[in-house]
Specification:
The complex is a heterodimer of chains A (about 260) and B (about 290). Chain A is about 85% helix and about 0% strand. Chain A contains eight helices and no strands. In chain A, α2 (about 40-80) runs antiparallel to α3 and α3 crosses α6. Chain B has about 290 residues and is α/β, with parallel strands linked by helices. In chain B, the strands form two sheets. A six-stranded mixed sheet of chain B has the order 6-7-8-3-9-10, with helices on both faces. The chains are: A mainly alpha (about 260), B alpha/beta (about 290). Chains A and B meet through α4 of A and α3, β6 and α4 of B.
Chain lengths: ~260, ~290
Amino acid sequence: MIDRVARFGRFWLDALERFGRAQLFLARSLGAMPSLIPRFPLLIQQLYASGVMTLSIILVSGLFVGMVLALQGYNLLQGFGAEAALGQAVALTLVRELGPVVTGLLFAGRAGSAMTAEIGLMKATEQLSGLEMMAVDPFKRVYAPRLFAGFLALPMLAAMFSAVGVLGGYLVGVEVLGVDAGAYWSNMQSSVAFVEDVCQGLIKALVFGLVVSWIAIFEGADCIPTSEGVSAATTRTVVYSSLSVLGLDFVLTAIMF
Amino acid sequence: MSTAQANGVPDATSVRPEGDEALVRVRDLHFARGRKKIFQGMTFEVPRGKITTIIGPSGTGKTTLLKMIGGQLKPSQGSIEFDGQNVAKLNRKALYALRKRMGMLFQSGALLTDLSVFENIAFPLREHTDLPDSLISHLVLMRLHAVGLRGARDLYPAELSGGMARRAALARALVFDPMMIMYDEPFTGQDPISMGVLLELIHTVNHALGLTSLMVSHDLAEALSISDHVVIISEGVVVEAGSPEQLRASPSEWTQQFLNGSPDGPVPFQLPAPDYAFELLGTSTATGSDR
């Protein structure tokens, strides 16, 4: 019994200690941000790796999510004779919720796991130690560019997800189901507020970008440098990032909307 | 009395090469990973301008020792001085300045996989200097020529053999003209030709450029053939240190076991285990634990 209590206590102590290390890691990574000014090409490179390379999956997913929203929304609104409000329903759902959240989840699966695997392999092949022994700070050369790239990329990807989703909704709602095009766009224009909806959705995406990148980079840097260790770290990145995105979405929604 | 002496083995300082000023001084080094004690009062010196080899059984902390000299790990007790500076006491800025004066050749080469061989070698120069591209190009080509890889400058690390990767890593370690280069198992997994090339390079580079080399190796014959000074470590302490000739003539059983590769001796063949007869037959013997 005492052994179980001790193990339970040790588990939570280890978890707390790791969370503390992750916070120090984030603080050092943020502190290394000014070093990105002379290393601007590294940021572009990471924006390409985490942003551009994730774009296709975001666009395709956004299109289908918008189409499904239009389909479901039309069936619901038709019962009240309010199918003209379809544009408003699709746009608000995407901009406020599904844009940032689904993009965050997809970003964690595609770019986050890639970041963890890359950094984990760099650790396993002693590249990180090699950088340190060459007097090059991995926080400046490896972690900060990836963290900032993720922070910038996710809002842009979320915006594109929402834009394509709105187009998907248009294709199904207007072209297939026959909702009036003017009503679709004008209702959307009149009901979606820039500050309350678009900007707050953007804030969510910025937070998700920071958190997902932080988790991905920390898991890579903190992994056991073996093939099993890198594999486990990649899994943890996807699990922790997804849960964080969903949990933070609730918190941010409760605070902002 | 040091731990080494307390354990009945000679203290490294007692066989310090005369007339040689030490570049690295390791004193009473203690370090543990969890409950496992890696170093328990290790003391030795690395003479300036010489090739020093550290040998010892697997898992005895040789690579850890190199990392501690490089300041990647801190001792729990004792000190490591590099050129008069206590490595563990330096702040990050001073430590990075110190690392510019030491190169390290990792067992895997540790080349950056997203950069070509040329860019890998140019990397420290681009990071730490504002030299023009033309000068960087000359410096890189000179180092590549020295290790025989000028023809591989556009290849990526994944396209190199193990031996070529280590030669490229050696060129990178040399590009900043360090005072000392540390080699972590440079000969492991090398074919005879690659091993010969690396031996020749380490020897030539050390003497031509006036460096100090500190090598960790299991390949005794090869390592001793180019070493000026050898340090044997086991169970967290220095067992013996001296020139290869001194060690070959040593009466120490530890030293002779290492040099002759004997399977049993002071480093036992059997790890400590419960009584053998008891485990097999379920009955205890009078002799107790069976080695």
